[in-house]
Design a protein that fits this description.
Helix 2 packs parallel to helix 4 and helix 3 (about 100-110) packs across helix 5. The radius of gyration is 16 Å and the shape is globular. It is about 35% helix and about 20% strand. It has a single domain (about 10-205), classed as L-fuculose-1-phosphate Aldolase (3-Layer(aba) Sandwich), CATH 3.40.225.10. It is α+β, with helices and mostly antiparallel strands.
């Protein structure tokens, strides 16, 4: 039996639940992070300055694929353009999650000159869609952070085109963007990558003098 496709209302509920869970884990401190879900040419996204620990469906803004507001109150985040780039470049993506964790911040700073964080040999890599074995290397690309978001969006577009198999992108000393064909898949990718960042971070930093 083919699983029933969740409605947009169900996906929005799941997005809010996921955002609150991320807040509870300390992954979106203060008012950081942003979350969105897509239905066709509409995107439902968190506005700027919102506490993710209390996120409810009524808080979301509706925008189009160009980032223009369609409905809702509040102001779009400066990072809205990064969501629209991901949706345009990853046409099957239906949800995007962006978090600021200790481990993705540390690793994105450590590996920024390399251009990616390599993750290899871990069983939890199989939590990423299309990965069937621990004997896989996931290269999570890193983009230099900047407050010039038009420039950042262009760089993100280029990185996505150059890394077709990546399940996420890091902004250096900033945070992780990951996505999925549903909120559930995006959350699975988020939890798998954040677990692996912590394992790899503990391994690397524990060996430093």
């Amino acid at each position: 039996m083919v699983p029933e496709t969740p409605s947009i209302e169900q996906e929005i509920d799941q997005l809010c639940t996921t955002a609150r869970a991320c807040y509870a884990r300390g992954w979106v401190p203060a008012t950081s992070g942003n979350f969105s879900v897509r239905e066709g040419n509409r995107i439902f996204i968190t506005p700027t300055g919102l506490d993710k620990g209390t996120l409810a469906p009524a808080d979301l803004l509706a925008i189009d694929l160009e980032g223009r507001a369609l409905a809702g109150s509040g102001r779009p985040s400066a990072e809205t353009s990064l969501h629209t780039v991901i949706y345009r470049e990853r046409v099957h993506a239906k949800a995007i999650l962006h978090v600021h964790t200790i481990w993705n911040t540390l690793l994105s700073g450590k590996f920024v000159s390399t251009g990616h964080v390599p993750l290899h040999g871990y069983e939890l890599l199989k939590g990423l869609s299309g990965v069937a074995s621990h004997d896989h290397t996931e290269h999570v690309p890193i983009i230099e952070n900047t407050q010039e978001y038009a420039e950042l969006a262009e760089h993100l577009r280029d990185v996505l085109r150059s890394n077709r198999d990546a399940h996420g992108v890091l902004l250096s000393r900033h945070g992780l963007y990951t996505w999925g064909e549903s909120v559930a898949e995006a959350r699975r990718h988020l939890e798998a990558l954040e677990f692996l960042f912590e394992v790899e971070g503990r391994r690397l930093f524990s060996h430093q003098d």
